[in-house]
Amino acid sequence: MQRCLDLAAKGLGKVAPNPMVGCVIVCDDQIVAEGYHEGFGGPHAEPNAIKQVSDELLKKCTLYVNLEPCSHHGKTPPCADLIISKGIQKVIVGNLDTNPLVSGKGIQKLKDAGIEVEHGVLDKECRALNKRFFTFHEKKRPYVILKWAQTQNGFISQWPLPENKEDNWITGEESKALVHQWRAEEQAILIGYNTLLADNPYLTTRLVQGKNPIRLVLTHYLDISMDLNVFNKEAKTVIFNTIKNEVNEHMEYVKIDWSNKAQEVLDYCYNHSIASVIVEGGTNTIYNFTNKNAWDEARVFVNPDKTFEHGITAPEIKFNTYSPVKIGNDLLYTFLNP
């Protein structure tokens, strides 16, 4: 089952909003085939593994998979039906699939066909791998990752802003590259109006290989320059505002209730099958999510050697954190919302 998880993890950033799934086929205590879900819309893990084994040998094999085989027709046929058709006699499953389209139906279909099924193997580890998928289906919202960088004395930015934007940068190049990797792993990234103007970010994955996330912008105003980097054509940009709904090429304007903006963003993501979002700031935008307790994880960079004399105070997370990891000269703290 651990090997299933290792394989499944290769799909991070490539299969969403589908879950990451790995499959291992064993015969006489030997692995004879492996597969994983490699890309959204493509074959699932089970057929990728099954196609490597002859029909005759499959009848003697046990199939391991970290998530319940699907039982419905989506972009691909049901994996449960394929397993049954090949005469596999035993299936070991990590998690039950809480997607209402499956939710026990896959395992029941296998049992009804006379297949021996065991589930709950490495259940905790399997759920952790697919935290985005389970949050999406169980909480009806995306998995929310809060992210910011702060100085040793607790500021995320100087104020007033310095003329040279580089003087306001807190973290090193190693941390910047890691953030771009994170962007490639999630479906969307959100910033507020002040961050948009102060940083003029691209919100892309230009420092690593990977798909750009959908860029989400919260702005009360629409009198902003379309020359800002976030409005280029490198990725879709959604502008949450109080004025209009409109779709224009790679840009979408979504009118929201500003007094409930965090929930409006979460609802939009859920309705558009966006299973994860990074909230990059600023402080007010992050507090919109913490005040609703609508977040799952916070990743906080601290530069232990940098201080600002005056500035914008960083958000505060009151839960316990893991021991920091050193990224270049920076310290990365990770908080999980219990």
Protein model, in words:
With 338 residues, this protein is of the alpha/beta class. It has 11 helices and 17 strands. It has helices at residues 2-8, 45-50, 55-58, 79-85, 105-112, 123-129, 131-139, 173-185, 193-199, 261-271, 283-290; strands spanning 22-27, 30-36, 62-67, 90-95, 116-119, 143-151, 155-158, 188-192, 214-218, 237-241, 246-248, 251-255, 276-281, 297-303, 311-313, 325-327, 330-336. A 10-stranded mixed beta sheet has the order 11-12-10-9-8-13-6-14-17-16, sandwiched between helices. Strands 2-1-3-4-5 form a 5-stranded mixed beta sheet, sandwiched between helices. A two-stranded antiparallel ribbon has the order 7-15. The radius of gyration is 23 Å and the shape is elongated.
Written as H for each helix and E for each strand, in order along the chain, the element string is HEEHHEHEHEHHEEHEHEEEEHEHEEEE
Strand content: 25-35%
Question: Residue-averaged pLDDT, rounded?
Answer: 95
In the predicted model, the low-confidence regions spanning at least 5 consecutive residues are none
Set out the fold topology.
Layout: H1 2-8, E1 22-27, E2 30-36, H2 45-50, H3 55-58, E3 62-67, H4 79-85, E4 90-95, H5 105-112, E5 116-119, H6 123-129, H7 131-139, E6 143-151, E7 155-158, H8 173-185, E8 188-192, H9 193-199, E9 214-218, E10 237-241, E11 246-248, E12 251-255, H10 261-271, E13 276-281, H11 283-290, E14 297-303, E15 311-313, E16 325-327, E17 330-336
Parallel strand pairs: 3-4, 4-5, 6-13, 6-14, 8-9, 8-13, 9-10, 10-12
Antiparallel strand pairs: 1-2, 1-3, 7-15, 11-12, 14-17, 16-17
Helix pairs in contact: 4-5
